[in-house]
Specification:
This protein is mainly beta and 433 residues long. It has 2 domains: 27-36 and 49-287, Immunoglobulins (Immunoglobulin-like), CATH 2.60.40.10; 292-394, Immunoglobulins (Immunoglobulin-like, Sandwich). The protein has helices at 2-22, 244-250, 403-432; strands at residues 29-37, 49-59, 81-85, 107-112, 139-146, 153-160, 168-175, 179-182, 188-190, 193-196, 208-215, 218-226, 231-232, 240-241, 255-257, 266-274, 277-287, 292-296, 308-318, 324-330, 336-339, 342-344, 348-349, 355-364, 373-382, 385-394. It binds 2-acetamido-2-deoxy-beta-D-glucopyranose.
Length: 433
Amino acid sequence: MTELSTIYKLSLVAAACFFHACSSSSCPALDCWFVQEKVGRGGGLTPPTSQEKSLLYIRTDANSHSAESQEPLSDTSPDRVYFITDPAATLCHHSLSPPKGSIEKPQCEISPFLQQPSNLKWVAPLTVSGFSPLYLQADWFSAALRGVDKELAISTVMRAPTATKEPNVILSVTSKTVSVQSRLGKPVLLDCGFWVDPSSPLSGSGFAVEWRYQFRGKGRLVLAYDGKTDRLADTQEKGATLDIEGLHKKGNASLILQEAKVRHSGTYICTVYLPYLLAQVAVELEIVEPPSLSIHPSPLPLAAPGQTLNVHCQASGFAPLSMELSWEFKGADGKARPLESCSVTGHREAWDGTYSQSTWLALDTSKMDLGTGGELTCVAVHPGGTRRARTSLSIIGLTSPSIEDSMAMVGVALVLYGLIKFVFWTFSSSGIK
Ligand SMILES: *[C@@H]1O[C@H](CO)[C@@H](O)[C@H](O)[C@H]1NC(C)=O
């Protein structure tokens, strides 16, 4: 009996925890900017916009009102306070609610959204039949959010019955990998997922997914999929795929690049279309490949004192371009020190977009205090990691005395001088006696 009642109590506790976790109380209230194009001031290239403080209360269930009892209103106009219902709890992500007092704040922007059909080949089939446009007659909003960890981006489209402040999330598109780094030749996954409110008439009338690439103002279509007719659009891009099954079953629209190339570095925009609606998130990809180094000549020839050796170190196959090349020398004392007398050549770009660059070192064996030789290292500091190439340097024959040697000689001379003085003094004093 006692066991049973314990189990009973435990399950009650578990149920309470469960309900607590599911209730909207775990969702943050989000400080947001309400951004709107200013009306009546047309003309000019960029439409003038206005920005107002806004506050978004999030709940996962329209009937729960616990959200309203959160935090008192700030200096936000009551007109700009929204009570959002997000059944998928996308907006409840922990990176949107940093601990109190933290400096980093999530970013949030909400604006009025204008629904319209698209003429794009892979989107047009969504609106051919035309469903009751009555559903569209409402106040539509879009919100774009970025988490504090710089990993999460969310874009949502919401519908509020006209003149209410209670929008429902209809479509949300999320990426959990806002900035991705990859080595060359490796497969890359750019995360993008979407959720459609199953209770919306728009759900079930098809979707389309599009990935676009942008770099320094230039763009191209990477991939486009019409989910209604199950067709991929023709693109020039090889080795870019979607997991079509995961896309239909779980809304997993992640882009898979089979083999990372330097030219893949840039911004990727994942857009998900529903009839008349769209939401998109951007993902940055950077291909980072550290250099491989080689020293020439290798091995180094024996150097005679007074001779100058020219040593060449080549760094190749790296990206991006930023890299520092330098030389180090480790002598008999085992301490590494930098060598200054080197010059760095301009960079060259290879067919695959990687770079190469060289450094020349003029090793003057008479001036550089190299002793009888040691270890010579070429060092490349690159965002992809630091690389080193080593070779040994031997100097034959006599060498000029080092500082330590000179000091020792001075020491010996002083002792000798003292000794002679002492002997001379002893003799001269005994002579007086
Ligand atoms: C989405 O699909 C890719 C490729 O199949 C997979 O690696 C990834 O884990 C999936 N993401 C989610 C959230 O299921």
